[in-house]
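Memo subject: From amino acid sequence to discrete backbone structure tokens
Keywords: amino acid chain, backbone geometry, structure tokens, three-dimensional fold.
Body of memo: The sequence and its backbone structure tokens, given next.
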Amino acid sequence: MAMWHRIVAASLLSVAAASALAIDYRSVEVPAAILYDSPSQKGKKLYLIRAQTPVEAVVRLEGWVKVRDAEGTLAWIEARNLGERRTLVVTAPRAEIRESDKAEAPVVATLDKWVVVDFIEAAAPGWAKVRHRDGATGFVRSTQVWGL
């Protein structure tokens, strides 16, 4: 019986560790937010980040979140400026939204670098279903966007 308990405990720890390692993406919910070098409004202001921009939440600390942006920059943002909504940003020079998650599928829209799209759901490996603000919906290659 003791062996069974060890196996269950090890399984639970594995699941907990995997959950702890899950990447947490959020998007900016205000028109523009200031990113700081420390978790305080008294910290050095680094730059502004605009609405809908996806960020990766790395650390949470009393009303503040340390985030990483698509270029890998780490900075602090007030937690109230982030929402649950998932967005992706195009990091390739150009990205194509296709009708299906196949390379030969017809192109629905072409997007320039830094354009933000709503993340709808994961698709076939290497693809994500997205929606552009003009209504174009389809699939984009995961290598062309950041925020997955």
User: Anything to note?
Assistant: The first strand starts at residue 24 and ends at 28. DSSP finds one helix and 14 strands in the chain. Residues 3-20 have pLDDT under 50 and may be disordered. The first helix runs from residue 2 to 20.
